[in-house]
Amino acid sequence: MSRNWFQSTNARVAGAFAVAVALHLLGTLLIPGYSQPFAIRALLVIASLLAVASIGQTLVVILGGIDLSIPFIIGFANVVAAQLYGVGWNFALVCAVVSALALLIGALNGLISRGLDIHPLIVTLGIGMIVQGAVLLWTGGFPSGSAPQAVSAFVSIGGSVGPLPVPGLVPCVLVLTLLVALVLARTPYGRRLYALGSNPGAAPLALIDPVRMWTVTYAASAFFASAAGVLLLGFTGSAYGDVGQPYLFQTIAAVVVGGAALVGGRGSYFGTIAGVLVLTEINTLLIGLGFRPSTVQAALGLVIVLLVSLYGRERHVSATI
Fold this sequence. Notes:
By secondary structure, the protein is an all-alpha fold.
């Protein structure tokens, strides 16, 4: 790939981080207590939850797809984990069952999308609605249960881990960020992901199996969505089937704000983290200024439309190789 492509990508990531810092400084000037320790902890926890949910979206967008099932899988994991734990299951077993089911759902998304050559937008939305319907039938629309105290403490805004004045979720997400970045940059999987996203037609000539890559990547996306659902169970304290709905928009927005191209082949998880911080700062700032949730949603929509319009005008990455 050309040097200009890498320079453009790095510039966007740096720009997104700069915007996040500028927004925080603006909030500090306009809103009393915006930079108080508790407020910063709250911001970091909310951003960390979105960061976990956005891992899978980052992978599938680099691949050249999109995953609209993420909010439904978040809700599925949230409700199923609460229900099973509520009837006495060991929570480790609960997590294993939820993860296995999420992996199967994600693998089905990728297999149908690539194997049958159906646009992933349609497939993932359809599969997600089936999952949501199945959960509603199982619970009768009234989910129950809660998370163990350890999970709640792990994501609690007032929690701390050792000498760090933040809950365990925050340093764990930092480590996870480094691991995901390492996988994308230094492993055969990461190289194949970028190659397939950059030039789907030529990738099979390099012995890259598109169906296998799509299946594995969408399975990973569903796994991280289920992890976010379980974490949100600890954060909110109770099961809620629609808890993942805000993440339908926000995961896509975070990836795009971070400089990824929706046509595939470009993006990084560091960029997504920058996008997560920008979105979290915008949400926090507008809510702190007294704007209604509908106005906040409209502002975020404007951001994503502007960025998609800008990035969508560029040539596909394969044209720069």
